């Protein structure tokens, strides 16, 4: 151990598991070889949105070759109580949405399972369904809390009076469609029973959480469920808690006495594992003639399911983003015959800031004030102001003619737009262990999950510095629920939470006076921490061009400037930032789960139809950041960076479209058919 | 997935047993089998047949083997030089990997991307005649404004076929020659029937007449690459002295087949090659459009494209 070791934190280390991934050596949940009697599960999904399943003709199939079991509520094992009713699979006859799992086929081969599932006869009493979200839906109600635990409503000052008396007013409604996370690796589980213990190779964002949840369903303590999650091909929130695949695989394995593999097909990711609710958001802004906000009102409508309540916190970031004497926010929900919405990258902030930041642009237009300046005048956050100012310089904002529909090159209308970004700096309790190896290297263990973000790599850097060891003398083990307990890879809290525990364990080992092992649990410290009012900020800038002949939109440049704590690894951080920005581009221009109200479901369920940006859509993209360590927050001085890139970037693009063409699209995505009639 | 058997075709005229289907690159057929939309009992692989040549024809035209891969055809020197509309259309389609597999005949016979057709759990008159067409009331933003019927408004998704339509291509089968325009049939009340080919009839080549003017293809889609068209125009134009001497126009993603715009061509021949005649010609064709709630934008789109593409060629 020497004091001259170069600090690992801040270095652009490549992902530790990168070579394994590009050579195919990395194993994902559906790839583990688990004995020679592996069986395959296939989920039968409801063809109706609402009704009861009265019977399933099981017998003819079970007699068929290779089919081992056909499970439905009439014969499936009873499960323990589920906190998440979506996990009470095959427990009763109610059908709450189209695509809900209503039966499971387990067979010796995948092909046999699929074929049996396709030919299974279901007797269903269908009922009329309601799947359309409307701002005047008669059943709208105000939930008690919105995700994760915010009051549904907030109010300071007299918004109505302030708005009525404002010199300049904006009153607009923005709509965002249902969106699906659909990570590259579909949800998958390989389950086997070792005696009474359950082993799950599962793709998720929280191995200890899956162990506890699935354990409870099978009346097992979490310690008797071993969840292995070595690599995850993305989740974007949809793997934050257990999904039906884990429960069904465990059930199938229990009934057949064989290991069972259940990999959801891509299509099932568009019904069974969550989505972002569509939103209808009314924003009212009042300001003085010199651009000081006097009233902010943000009312968001979303949906939840019949099964349980998930309330997206759409308007919550509006509570702190700008200073105004009167601010009111509220959320209302309709229970629809639809799947339950869930976390999707920046739940709340992504759709909410779209509406707020577009409305701010509309206000800037009415005030004839530069939209960067309008934001600067109304924020109390210094780091946000810096992101706006420095970002504007770096992007080359200032020579812009503020008037819309002025710049034309050939058939292209060209414009630029700006929008702010914010994301809470969250930290959750975790624990870690550091263990000295015979050769002097140190192994650090924590039950975290790396979704492809570089978490394993960054934890290695953090550990190396805390130990005072060179980077290559440290090995980090994650992705296993039996390791010291870690919080979820969600809410951009992973690195801050796990890094704290890792730092603690490594420091304890270093200061232990020669012990071989040390552990650290951050719970007490995290509980004492005041996380209130801690945010990362950013500013997004976009240049777009819109084809006057066709209405096609292209994003020529997308730029983000962030103040997001200490950046621990510039390489992996950049990919989080620009990944978020590209997803924001998808939200602005491409992504939409198209609902067919009569069929009661979305009709987009693969990547040929549900569009996300492709390489050709991303022409020039850049992310930069301020040196902004927050030493009071955690030992690394870091904040989360996984979600802020999708916050505000869609608004920057929409605002740029308006600047280019003079057209306000208030109904996402901004596709050519919405622009063409007014070009 | 339904069990099937596989064999390789060894001669051009062996036909197909009942329940069998030809397999070429498989990029469409195999997808549909995985979705349970296509359920053949036997796949007969035609990619080993000697159909992968592009050759000059005595009349100055070109013969394109049915098995020529889309990527090879797109970069063929004669195609690039004499039929740029075809090269452009091919390169605007799918992705590099798919074009490496996709064949000429397979591309012509690819099925619609209508979201109801692509989902075996949905009613669809193509899956099951009489089960209905939910697209009429439901999702039809990218479905037909021309040539549809109350039974079906599916659009033909191919880019290549639109270019070939504008080039007056002729399809050769093991039994006959067909103008490409006569290969496809409109849905009427029998949308399950998409072409005039009989069971087991093998496409052997596509023939192009000698090149007859400047040509171009313009495709519009919802993202920059790797997406099916929401509207496209293929044009072949010859202008003499500022007057349209000859023109061939075809539209993509607006009809159940690549749409040859005969009315527009008629309206243009002998007229000045100006933007206003181009727009009038487009209007003459699009007057017959019967848009639904969410696809009327295609009328504006095609109108603008016709003018823009022809202006570029004039
Ligand atoms: C994700 C994705 C994106 C795509 N994007 C585009 C796009 O943007 N533009 C576009 O134009 N296309 C696109 N395609 C479609 C692609 O072009 C077609 O799948 C391809 O051309 C089909 O050719 P194939 O040889 O693979 O046909 P196959 O799938 O093998 O066969 C298709 C049909 O043709 C029949 N057939 C094949 N050969 C013969 C023959 N010689 N005689 C008689 N019948 C025959 C088969 O029986 C089958 O019915 C896309 C496809 C995918 C999967």
Automatic annotation (TrEMBL), chain A:
**Gene3D superfamilies linked:** Aldehyde oxidase/xanthine dehydrogenase, a/b hammerhead (3.90.1170.50), Aldehyde oxidase/xanthine dehydrogenase, molybdopterin binding domain (3.30.365.10)
Q: Which residues form the Aldehyde oxidase/xanthine dehydrogenase a/b hammerhead domain?
A: 23-128
Q: Which UniProt keywords apply?
A: Molybdenum, Oxidoreductase
InterPro entries with a match to the protein in the record = Ald_Oxase/Xan_DH_a/b, Ald_Oxase/Xan_DH_a/b_sf, Ald_Oxase/xanthine_DH-like, AldOxase/xan_DH_MoCoBD1, AldOxase/xan_DH_MoCoBD2, AldOxase/xan_DH_Mopterin-bd_sf
Keyword Amino-acid biosynthesis attached: no
Q: Does the keyword Oxidoreductase apply?
A: yes
**Residue ranges of the TM segments:** none
Protein name (record): Xanthine dehydrogenase family protein molybdopterin-binding subunit
From TrEMBL, chain B:
Q: Which Pfam families match?
A: CO_deh_flav_C, FAD_binding_5
Transmembrane feature ranges: none
**Which sequence ranges form a coiled-coil region, renumbered to this chain?**
none
Give the domain of life.
Answer: Bacteria
Q: Which InterPro entries match?
A: CO_DH_flav_C (IPR005107), CO_DH_flav_C_dom_sf (IPR036683), Diverse_Substr_Oxidored (IPR051312), FAD-bd_PCMH (IPR016166), FAD-bd_PCMH-like_sf (IPR036318), FAD-bd_PCMH_sub1 (IPR016167), FAD-bd_PCMH_sub2 (IPR016169), Mopterin_DH_FAD-bd (IPR002346)
Q: Where is the FAD-binding PCMH-type domain?
A: 1-213
What keyword terms does UniProt attach to this protein? Oxidoreductase
Q: What is this protein called?
A: Xanthine dehydrogenase family protein subunit M
The major lineage groups are: Bacteria, Bacillati, Actinomycetota, Actinomycetes, Micromonosporales
